[in-house]
Amino acid sequence: MIKPDAVEANNIGPILAMMTEAGFKIVALKYTKLSAEQAGKFYAVHSERPFYGELVEFMSRGPIVAAILEKDNAVEDFRKLIGATNPAQAEEGTIRKRFAKSIGENAVHGSDSDENAQIEGDFFFSQLERF
Ligand code: ATP
Ligand code: MG
After folding, report:
1. Cα(55) to centroid of ligand 2, in Å?
2. The domain containing residue 21 runs over which residues?
3. Measured in angstroms, how far is the CA atom of residue 116 from the centroid of ligand 2?
């Protein structure tokens, strides 16, 4: 997912380019906006964390780009491409190093397991929207 901060900063194009240049195939793509309720559900695993309210507010404040990306070893390789949660710790050449402003507003989301990638893909896309 390309988060609201990166959409606001007009960075959809360069972020998608970094994904495709890194060898990810776009299987599904959508420009949409999450309600607070949907954002809360998407990040429900963090509901007990102190930053949850802030996270829900941020993720629902403007449009996002959702995508299903395909590649061998996709989850691990995508996490490497996006970089550390805190952009101050993200390596050179990562999406967060280049585009993220803070630990909260960090430009992109990546699934953390094949199982969650399945769940999150189903959250945004029907079978008819996948190619
Ligand atoms: P994501 O799940 O969005 O790919 P991540 O897996 O790198 O990020 P998580 O630990 O899953 O990191 O946290 C989810 C999101 O919650 C972060 O990307 C960030 O937007 C927000 N977040 C995490 N830690 C903090 C924090 N300490 N303060 C504010 N927001 C935070
Ligand atoms: Mg995460």
Report:
1. 12
2. 4-129
3. 10
